[in-house]
Amino acid sequence: MSYNVQIFNIQTMRNFENLHTDDFFEHSENLSELTEQQFEELKDRLIAYDYELLVTKKDYLEFRKVDFSVQAILTKFGLYFSAASNADDIFEISMTASEFTDTGEFAKFDPQQGEWEI
C-alpha cells in the first residue's frame, strides 16, 4: 500500500471547497490547470530537491527521489507524490509538499486525511 500527497494551485482548492463532492478529483473540469510558469517552478524545485527526472511524456513528467522509494508525477493539473508505506518515505513526501506551498500559489492535499494545507 502506498501513501499519496498532492499539490494543486489555490484555485483547485477553492473549487473543491465550493463543490465539495465525493468524486471531485474524478472530473478534470474541477481542476484548475497550472500556468506554464508554475509547472516550470515545480519541475525546477523537484530537481533542486534531488528528484531525478525519469520519464518525459507529452502529458506528464515522472520523477524519482534519490535514495527513497518515492515517486512524483507532474501534470498540467498538479504534482502527485507517492511513497512506499514506510515512515521515512511518507515523511519525505509530506514535508516536501508542505514546503512547496511556501509561495502561496499552491495547496497541499492529503487524500488519506481528506485535508488541505496552504
Structural features, described:
This protein is an alpha+beta fold and 118 residues long. The protein has one domain: 2-Layer Sandwich (TATA-Binding Protein). It is built from three helices and seven strands. A seven-stranded antiparallel β-sheet has the order 2-3-4-5-1-6-7. A hairpin with a 4-residue loop joins strand 6 and strand 7. The protein is globular. The two termini are 26 Å apart. The model has no long low-confidence stretch (mean pLDDT 95).
Low-confidence runs of at least 5 consecutive residues: none
Question: What is the CATH architecture term?
Answer: 2-Layer Sandwich
When the domains are counted, the total is 1
What is the overall number of helices? 3
Q: What are the secondary-structure elements, in order, as H or E? A: EHHEEEEHEE
- What's the Cα radius of gyration? 13 Å
| Helix/strand class | alpha+beta
Distance between the termini: 26 Å
How would you sum up the global shape? globular
The spatial strand order of the largest sheet comes to: 2-3-4-5-1-6-7
Major sheet details: 7 strands, antiparallel
